[in-house]
Write a structure and sequence with these properties.
The chain is 38% helix and 14% strand. The chain is α/β, with parallel strands linked by helices and 402 residues long. It has two domains: 7-265, Type I PLP-dependent aspartate aminotransferase-like (Major domain) (Aspartate Aminotransferase, domain 2, 3-Layer(aba) Sandwich); 268-400, Aspartate Aminotransferase, domain 1, CATH 3.90.1150.10. It has a seven-stranded mixed β-sheet with strand order 1-7-6-5-4-2-3, sandwiched between helices. Strands 8-9-12-11-10 form a five-stranded mixed β-sheet. Strand 4 (157-163), helix 7 and strand 5 form a beta-alpha-beta unit. Helix 3 packs parallel to helix 10 (254-265). The longest helix is centred in the C-terminal third of the chain and has 20 residues, at 267-286. The chain is globular. The relative contact order is 0.12.
């Protein structure tokens, strides 16, 4: 029997770990094992007629300009679509350009957006500050109760936007419930899934229309490169998402696409190891007398623990904690750490800690921060690949200095 008859030639029949090593690969005539980097901006055509047909989209799989089509970028898109269970995907220069495209591509002047108020600072800016400049109004709600979305919907609501778990407090939004509400009103649900990753949560399976990621985070996972991606149905991705990308140009470079391809090869084992360590760190912090509270979706103390068990397969790689003593105590803890680094990034192989109130959410008023649960003593830890016992020892020492 020939190799071509092997049923495993269909990548959809492979497990996620195998898909992330082999999925979407296109080899050149040199039959390289590692994906090639096509660092070209344009392409030559065998004839003028070929060029005309290409620009009329009559030649599938061909490329005419790397702003919106490049073989390396396409391999990354196809591999991520396999993992997500999406029909199509488009890659972007950064996570924020992916979010901005996902939201902006689905609305027009006069439309309305409903979003959970607990969002990363840049995402909230897009919804609350940027889109109204183009005649698109927005309403922010407490995302923990799906009925808040139902009450906020209007006849002109076209997009519902959420992130879950949320940044930085790790609150949850019931994706399936909100998807039903959005669908009933003819709106598209967009989910920022960066904290859970596609390894731990599948928003499209729960009813979402588009999923966004900052590929800078777990997908690269090494702190090397910026990137983003939007995934969904072929209709949405090949339609408005692609058109806005093509005409505005927030393109992922071929080199960064190659970096992401190398990153996703190890995504399953990295996320598994980081999540296991995060659970151990959460257990340690939950019992510490100098910690007011922790937030970790798979810890029994989380108020949405049962929801987490329903829509996630594990608790994520991040832990939020509130230190007794407010901002000064939080700063003292962070400054006393040796292994865990102070950085606002996340999903890295190195463990990182940040004080959201003075970094990622610094531009908001204290009232807005407190409304979102961002207290002066709140810290967010992104757990890396270090030994969990070393991380716990590091935190134990730092807490002794508070």
């Amino acid at each position: 029997m020939s190799k071509s008859n092997n049923p495993l030639n269909d990548p959809k029949k492979l497990s996620a770990a195998t898909q992330l090593v082999h999925g979407g690969t296109r080899r050149s005539e040199f039959n390289e094992t590692s994906e090639a980097i096509f660092m070209n901006s344009g392409y030559s055509y065998p004839s003028s007629q070929y060029a005309e047909d290409l620009f009329l989209n009559k030649i599938p799989g061909a490329h005419n300009y790397s702003r919106f089509a490049n073989p390396t970028m396409e391999m990354f898109q196809n591999r991520m679509a396999l993992l997500e269970g999406a029909e199509a995907a488009r890659a972007f220069a950064t996570g924020m350009s992916a979010v901005t495209n996902a939201v902006m591509s689905q609305v027009r002047a006069g439309d309305h957006i409903v979003a959970a108020r607990a969002l990363f600072g840049g995402c909230r800016y897009v919804v609350e500050d940027l889109m109204p400049r183009f005649g698109v109004s927005s309403t922010l709600v407490d995302g923990r109760d799906p009925e808040n979305f139902a009450r906020a919907m209007r006849e002109n609501t076209k997009v519902v936007f959420i992130e879950t778990p949320t940044n930085p407090t790790l609150e949850l939004v019931d994706i399936a419930a909100v998807a039903r509400i959005a669908r009933a009103h003819g709106a598209k649900l967009i989910v920022d899934n960066v904290f859970a990753t596609a390894m731990l949560q599948k928003p499209l399976q729960l009813g979402a229309d588009l999923v966004t990621y900052s590929a800078t985070k777990h997908i690269d996972g090494q702190g090397r490169a910026l990137g983003g991606i939007v995934l969904g149905s072929k209709e949405l991705i090949d339609g408005d998402v692609h058109t806005l990308l093509r005409q505005t140009g927030p393109s992922l470079s071929p080199f960064n696409a190659w970096i992401m391809l190398k990153g996703v090869e190890t995504l399953p084992i990295r996320v598994k190891a980081m999540t296991e360590s995060a659970a151990k760190v959460a257990d340690f912090l939950a019992d510490h007398p100098k910690i007011e509270r922790i937030s970790y979706p798979f810890h029994p103390s989380h108020p949405q623990y049962e929801l987490a068990k329903r829509q996630m397969t594990s608790g994520s790689t991040l832990v939020a904690l509130e230190v007794k003593g407010g901002r000064d105590a939080a700063f003292r803890l962070s400054d006393s750490l040796a292994v865990i680094l102070i950085s606002n990034n996340l999903g890295d192989a190195k463990s990182l800690i940040t004080h959201p109130g003075t970094t990622t959410h610094a531009r908001f008023t204290e009232e807005v921060r407190l409304e979102a649960g961002i207290t002066p003593g709140l810290l967010r830890i992104s757990i890396g690949l270090e030994d969990a016992d070393d991380l716990i020892k590091d935190l134990d020492y730092a807490l002794s200095q508070v």
